[in-house]
Amino acid sequence: MSRNIIAILRGIRPEEAVACAEALVEAGITRIEVPLNSPDPLDSIGAMAARFAEHPGIEIGAGTVLTPEEVAQVAQRGGRLIVSPNADPAVIAETASRGLLSWPGIFTPTEAFAALAAGATGLKLFPGSMAGPEGLRAMRAVLPKGTQVYAVGGAGPENFGAWFAAGADGFGIGSALYKPGMDIDEVARRAAEIVAAYDAARAEIAR
């Protein structure tokens, strides 16, 4: 079963990318982004995209995507997931025009509605630590029904429940899952713990 978690592999190197992605997928995390300020990020994205090319439910792509040109570069390497820290209509439009998944960063209702109007797949509430669950709860009152919102930065196993209760659909998880140079076994262990915490929080909300 897939979870609404985007793994953020900031700093990963191409030679470890496939093994890391396999560990995450095995744990149940099937959305993976490599921020473009990582070493040789397009090589890592290309390697992971090729590994899972026959698995359409596994979404590989890039984070910290700031320009339409970068969207094109990611697409050329087989990436399908485009995540940004900001909501640039040109980046969102380029992503949508290529049939890719667009997750721009937003912090205010104004940014949220502009991103949706430009064609965003879903919204990345960033930094989540500044908005907090209460900030998302207030925003949910005005967002269109069905809008997908992932909390990124300040969301983790310790507060998944509070975020779910406030209306979060999922999360972006970075250093709690992966840090540069981390052993793959440690990545797998952390992924399993995060998935277990996610499942527990989701089940509690559903009760």
Automatic annotation (TrEMBL):
<comment type="pathway">
    <text>Carbohydrate acid metabolism.</text>
</comment>
<dbReference type="InterPro" id="IPR013785">
    <property type="entry name" value="Aldolase_TIM"/>
</dbReference>
<comment type="similarity">
    <text>Belongs to the KHG/KDPG aldolase family.</text>
</comment>
<keyword id="KW-0119">Carbohydrate metabolism</keyword>
<keyword id="KW-0456">Lyase</keyword>
<dbReference type="Pfam" id="PF01081">
    <property type="entry name" value="Aldolase"/>
</dbReference>
<dbReference type="GO" id="GO:0008674">
    <property type="term" value="F:2-dehydro-3-deoxy-6-phosphogalactonate aldolase activity"/>
</dbReference>
<protein>
    <submittedName>
        <fullName>2-dehydro-3-deoxy-6-phosphogalactonate aldolase</fullName>
        <ecNumber>4.1.2.21</ecNumber>
    </submittedName>
</protein>
<dbReference type="InterPro" id="IPR000887">
    <property type="entry name" value="Aldlse_KDPG_KHG"/>
</dbReference>
<comment type="subunit">
    <text>Homotrimer.</text>
</comment>
